[in-house]
Amino acid sequence: NKKKELVHAEIMLPSHAPPGYADRATLWNAVEAVENQWNSQLARRIVLAFPVEVPKEQYLSMIKEFCQEQFVSKGMIADFAIHDKGDGNPHAHILLTLRAMDEHGKWLPKARKVYDLDENGERIRLSSGNWKCHKENTVDWNDQKYAEIWRHSWETITNRYLEAAGRPERVDLRSFERQGIQQIPTVHLGPAAHQMEKRGVETFLGNLNRDIRAVNSLMQSIRSAIRGLQRWIADLNEKKQLLLDALEKAKEPTLSDLLVDYFNLRNEQRSDWSSKAQIKCTARDLAEVMQAVDYLKAHSLNTVEDLNAAIKDLSQTAAPLRKQLKQNENRMRSIAQIKDATAIHAKLKSIHDTFIKMNFKLTKDAYAAQHKEELDTFNKAVRTLMKLNGSTAVDFSALDAEFSALQSSSAELRAQLETLQPDVSALKNIRKYIDMVLNKQQLSAPGGKMPEKESVLKQLEQFQQKKSHHKTTSTTPNREESL
């Protein structure tokens, strides 16, 4: 139950607040007494997640440091509770007061009237006879800038505790888009859908999240492979001149030549192996290298520049597909949110309409208090619909048609991305074989020692010299001892 989940609860007061407000009932009764409007906001609620990598006994110091720095020092009262039911989701709930206090602990107004002045510093009279004025908040705690400030503060505190615990993990509370991460966020399920999914019942939002995760996985796989190939090409270009010097060639070796030379070198290194081992390893190397050579020939890839161009083409082909796929999935998420908000709107509209029709203030205030959660949820659904749909009237036929079209488009885009996978796989294999030639520490020497830094390059040079010598003398030189 909830009490078993509660780890710690505490109220932190600024220095000028009445000590009696350390009692939860006293505090919130006082808040309700001063908030006499039916639609007054009593508190601000914040939920924080604790990293499981930080020792649990440090959670209290983390949240107290955060509350003191960001809220209590500014004059707010912070009522927090730490919860942990052992499901890997330790978290805290914070309730913050919204009114400032004077030095005697008396609640101050949230806003004050300010008269507008003309260019001469005089009040402006309206046609109604009243003075033109506007309201100004007495404190700026409702400014949206604080959401960013508070997130950054919690991020800083969390990362400092992770570092103190010797953990490599770090948190970043910015959105994927602001972090530059090309990943589609999933949709919040909500408690009802979450429970249905836990029971094995598929839901619309659950299926959408599974599609989003599959798309993210596919895009990440292709993106990582292409980036790896691009980094490798950059490194390969740096090593190309070194390889030319080592082999004393007047022209750049082709990729196929490098693979064949390595295959021949490997065969010579195994000359003192047993016949069975030689046959087995030679057959394996031959199959792998020839498959890579065939791909190079089939795609007319002869030089490092050719390979670089092929990888660039692959990246340019994949980039617009990933971009359009992300746009599709984001719009599908919005459609899902519109449908969810519409269902909530329809479910709670009767409660809202009943409230609107009430005329007597006391009855209306009592009804608002009794149905506060439903009214807040209804208003949130209205805001979502206005933001994403522009109206509370939803054309489900149009949305369903659009969603279906987006699904078809996304399926086609995923299919196009998947057709790139064979080329990505082939280029990764070619990279591996070229790296086998360029790797300066490829083979282990007898006795467990690693070869010298330039051993592979030296062996390639020696092998080329021996081939040239064999052509002129028709004799076979003594094989140097293998590394």
Please name the defining characteristics of this protein.
483 residues; BirA Bifunctional Protein, domain 2; 15 helices; 59% helix; disordered C terminus
Question: How would you describe this structure to a colleague?
Answer:
- With 483 residues, this protein is of the alpha+beta class.
- 59% of the residues lie in helices and 7% in strands.
- The protein is built from 15 helices and 6 strands.
- Strands 1-3-4-2 form a 4-stranded antiparallel β-sheet. Strands 5-6 form a two-stranded antiparallel sheet.
SSE topology:
Layout: H1 2-5, E1 6-12, H2 24-34, E2 44-49, H3 59-70, E3 78-83, E4 91-96, E5 111-115, E6 133-137, H4 145-164, H5 176-179, H6 190-198, H7 204-247, H8 255-269, H9 275-298, H10 304-357, H11 361-370, H12 372-388, H13 396-419, H14 421-438, H15 455-473
Antiparallel strand pairs: 1-3, 2-4, 3-4, 5-6
Strand content: 5-15%
What's the main sheet like? Answer: 4 strands, antiparallel
Mean pLDDT: 81
Please give the share of residues in helix. Answer: 55-70%
Give me the side-by-side strand order of the main sheet: 1-3-4-2
Q: CATH topology of the domain at 2-106 and 144-171, which one?
A: BirA Bifunctional Protein, domain 2
Describe the global form: elongated
User: Which stretches of 5+ consecutive residues score pLDDT under 50?
Assistant: 440-457, 474-483
Distance between the termini: 67 Å
Count the E strands.
Answer: 6
Short recap of the structure:
The chain has helices at residues 2-5, 24-34, 59-70, 145-164, 176-179, 190-198, 204-247, 255-269, 275-298, 304-357, 361-370, 372-388, 396-419, 421-438, 455-473, and strands at 6-12, 44-49, 78-83, 91-96, 111-115, 133-137. It is of the alpha+beta class and 483 residues long.
